[in-house]
């Protein structure tokens, strides 16, 4: 299964086309170009997904380490704002922040220009998961979970002020005779329990603690894309978020 942009071993970003709701990957058309303009902004660019690539700045696992996304002319672009959400044919673009089988907690720096990917910190210390994740973890570009909007489906919980999180499963081909645990159950249990080694309680899930349908996932994507458009059009205060 092909990817449009593959990161270096140290970079924490990869760019793929995802069919449906990011559960099946497909190859990217090599000559596809998308002309886009961010709502409310003046920048217009010709985006060629195959030309985008990650560019490291600094040393991995340091406070100054950043991974920028650059185009074919080596110009910085924002993985959050400049990469279109939709890739055509009902597919979405997906930005990987944390590669599978790694533990450094990487995330888009939403408060920095060009929103590079950096390692998260707590009290000045770099953050790590207590064990490796077993899938690629990242975000859907041009989405935003509005922290002022309460969601009645999950007991009135507010958005977390970040793009929508995505887990991309697949990649590994199982061997005949393998005994595999149900993938969705394993993912749910991982996110429920990963804070317990730090002395915190298990996370709680809404929606009856069950996976939702494709239709519900698409509804969430549409709603958060609309929230992002309001954000970049300055209809909602950006606070410390970078719109560059």
From TrEMBL:
Which Gene Ontology cellular-component terms appear in the entry?
cytoplasm
Q: Which cofactor does it need?
A: Mg(2+)
> Which controlled-vocabulary keywords does the entry list?
Hydrolase, Magnesium, Metal-binding
Please state what class of enzyme this protein is.
Answer: hydrolase
GO molecular-function annotation terms? inorganic diphosphate phosphatase activity; magnesium ion binding
Q: Which reaction does it catalyse?
A: diphosphate + H2O = 2 phosphate + H(+)
Single GO biological process annotation from the record: phosphate-containing compound metabolic process
Pfam families assigned: Pyrophosphatase (PF00719)
Q: Which domain of life is it from?
A: Eukaryota
Its family remark reads: Belongs to the PPase family.
Q: What is this protein called?
A: inorganic diphosphatase
